[in-house]
From TrEMBL:
SUPFAM superfamilies: P-loop containing nucleoside triphosphate hydrolases. The keyword Amino-acid biosynthesis does not apply. Keywords: ATP-binding, Nucleotide-binding, Transport. GO terms for molecular function: ATP binding; ATP hydrolysis activity. This is Phospholipid/cholesterol/gamma-HCH transport system ATP-binding protein. Residues 26-264 form the ABC transporter domain. It comes from Saonia flava.
Length: 265
């Protein structure tokens, strides 16, 4: 497949449509975000469909985290349209945004556990924030245990983050993301800083979670191996735009130097 095909694929993904279709869970159109003269995003488009694993790759500083922060309303875009599960993010009140966020699992870059809290307390934290997800449940222990069992760490429930390895911390962070049973999970560099074997374990967990709960996943990474294993579709973020799109195999065959650069070891 040549680069014209990639361009065609990009054009055929329907960004020219003004409104997303029903099975689209995240829709970003023409997103712009600058910091002074630093034009980070300059017309980025993205669509995540239900049940899909979409990988967005871009080199360090290309704006991946900025994009994901705009997506969840942690950062305000300069312009563009962002819709998450049928709701336009920029129009939502803080309250509605909070309710929406309960359906979006966000695994932050790094693990971002609270160091002063035990594993159990870290997992209970989102439950306390999103009380509506609890219903009549008083004892949260079974929920905490289920989330920890999903990542193979039930035995670590009473440990402090300082007692965990990097890989274990990442797994606890993943469990904390899962505890609210999100419909969409956003992973920001889920394997960064991990050795290849631990990275593989995390990728394995991401896959099993997706199967078990049928979540849609947006995975931000510059780990080519992670992208190869997990992606059904990929977007390369270059120069502030969705520069190329396709499956891993399609992009791997590209002769565009900016695309090739991603796959050179
Ligand atoms: N709050 C901010 N204020 C000013 N500049 C910012 C801010 N957040 C991000 N930037 C700038 O935006 C650019 C993109 O940053 P971002 O964190 O999105 O990169 P990234 O693609 O996630 O990189 P990495 O792979 O290293 O995580 C960088 O030049 C960064 O300095
Ligand atoms: Mg980042």
């Amino acid at each position: 497949m040549n680069d014209n095909h990639i361009l065609q694929m990009k054009q055929s993904t329907g960004f020219q449509d003004s409104m997303p279709q029903e099975n689209v869970v995240i829709y970003i159109k023409d997103l712009h975000k600058s910091f002074g003269d630093n034009h980070v995003l300059s017309g980025f488009n993205m669509k995540l469909t239900r049940g899909e694993n979409l990988v967005v790759m871009g080199k360090s500083g290309s704006g991946k985290s900025v994009m994901i922060k705009c997506l969840v309303g942690l950062m305000e875009a300069d312009s563009g349209y962002i819709e998450v599960m049928g709701k336009e993010v920029s129009t939502l009140s803080q309250e509605t945004l909070d309710i929406l966020r309960a359906d979006i699992g966000f695994l932050f870059q790094g693990s971002a556990l609270y160091d002063s809290m035990t594993v159990r307390e870290n997992l209970e934290f989102p439950l306390r924030r999103h009380k509506n997800k609890l219903g009549n449940i008083v004892d949260t222990t079974p929920m905490v245990m289920e989330a920890l069992e999903n990542v193979g760490l039930a035995h670590a429930i009473d440990l402090m983050p300082s007692e965990l390895s990097g890989g274990m911390k990442r797994r606890v962070a993943l469990a904390r993301t899962l505890i609210l049973k999100p419909k969409v999970i956003l992973y920001d560099e889920p394997t960064s800083g991990l050795d290849p074997i631990t990275a593989k374990e995390i990728i394995g967990l991401m896959r099993s979670i997706q199967k078990k709960y049928n979540t849609s996943s947006l995975i931000i990474t510059h780990d080519v191996d992670c992208a190869r294993v997990i992606s059904e579709r990929m977007i390369l973020l270059v120069d502030g735009i969705n520069y190329a799109e396709g499956t891993y195999e399609e992009l791997l065959k590209s002769q565009d130097p900016k695309v090739e650069a991603f796959f050179k070891k």
